[in-house]
Amino acid sequence: MYQILLVDDEPYVVDDLFISIPWNELQVEQVHRAYSGYEALEILRQHPVDIVVTDINMPEMSGLQLIGHTRREWKHIKTVLLTGYSEFEYAKQAISQQASAYLLKPIGNGPLMEVLEQLLLEIRKEWETRASYQRTLQTFREHLPLLRDRLLNGLLQGRKPGNRQLVEQLDQFSLPFTLERPAALLVIRLEDYFQQHDVNSMQLFEYAIVNIAHELFQERFAMWSCKDVHDYLVLVLQPLTEDCRDNLPSLHSQMIQTAYQLQKNVSTVIGGGISVIATGWGSFPDQVYSLYQTAISTIRAHIGHETGVFLKAEDTAEKRITTLQSLYEPPTLFHLLEASNWDSIESKVRNIHAELIETDGHSPEHIEEAKLYMETAFYYFAHKNNTMLGDITGSTMPGGGSFHTPDKLLDYALRMLALLKEHFDSERKDMRSVLIQKVHEYIDLNLHYVSLNAIADEVKLHPVYLSKIYKAETGKRLSDHISSAKMEKAAYLLTHSALKIYEISAALGYSNAHYFIKLFKEYSHMTPQEFRDRAN
């Protein structure tokens, strides 16, 4: 289904085309109307228009200028230029460069439909070409390194998709990794020699290092690489043999020896030093996050400013204080509160509670950490919405002290969320009621010329967002309310004034009295004159 925009500074031209063309036969889903070039640009920014039909001679912005804007910003849009006979020679020069087609005014429905049918056929063919398998496959291949990088970074940060989804992604991205088979990590830090170069050179160095690693490991290990949030290169290595569990110590020794060789080859071939941290084995993908955290902790604790270091993370392992993964992994509680996504917020809180219960090594200090983090998020959300948290919760903060169990923390967090949701839902409803009232007042005062864009400017909202709010609050489209308000005003003027019908039409912003009469008959099932006669 397609969308078309009709543009002319003479409203009756636009309105007549809107009424008289059988748009359904052309598979046109929506027809937009604009009465100036600037109004047309606003509609183009808000809607996925396929074809623009515009008059050439308009004040402020001509049809040629409008087409020029359209070709620069929305190259896919087809354009039809409407021109008078006296303007034809002038228009013909620009038509060959910009417009898809032209028609001489006055316009007949038949010629316009023929032009539109041809342009819609061209659009369909263009989309079929774009959607072709080869082009899609080529685009996928071009983005494959980025897709692999993002997926691995997600695993390193603890964001693991479901097993079925992960298996599908591994297959799509041509990654020969097997779930639950052991894997180990190499975390590589590029040293000073590399840091002196610009971004483009760094990308080439990183590409070269990954290629050297692939050459060294490919006989025994599947390898998957990415650049992490610390600008380290991370390699995930998994044995290729299915029965690897019986031979893990030997495979680990081979991996360490090859990693030493990688460090040496990078220094020899490229001329720069790298530090390498090698982890032990862990189940893929469930333990990738913990292996990565161990490696990063090792870098912080044992490398510092030293260069060219090689360490096995397991050799430096001490009793490790675990971190609350679910507390800090995205989306954070701060982001979820900003979005007012209350179901996801509760799910986040319950995930934190579950981790505190199920994971060994979490002390009362971890419970206090979670409590302080949540409390900070609650303060932030309240203050960002111009409200004191104490005004929402009352003079006494729920659960103001420390907690000794995860269950107490969960109870506190859920009570706080209930108070926040109740307060801001009520406030939002009041604000929207005031907004709808302002919209109605503006419409009543400006019935002679009112549009969605004008109303949106008045209430300082984007037109699309305003339309959604209005529909959600009233159950009606804003355009329907405007039409209804105009018809109600027309009915009042017909029975309480001596204004002629064409004067009432003009007073309500209709430049074409015939169009007004048609709309009024749809509204009251009578013509304006019949309505006036019956009232008298």
Automatic annotation (TrEMBL):
InterPro entries: CheY-like_superfamily, Homeodomain-like_sf, HptR, HTH_AraC, Sig_transdc_resp-reg_receiver
Name of one Pfam family that matches: Response_reg
Keywords linked to the UniProt accession: Cytoplasm, DNA-binding, Phosphoprotein, Transcription, Transcription regulation, Two-component regulatory system
Record PTM 4-aspartylphosphate, positions in chain: 55
Domain HTH araC/xylS-type: 437-534
Protein location: Cytoplasm
Cited CDD domains: REC_YesN-like
Chief localization: cytoplasm
Location of the Response regulatory domain: 3-120
Protein name: Response regulator
Native source species: Paenibacillus phytohabitans
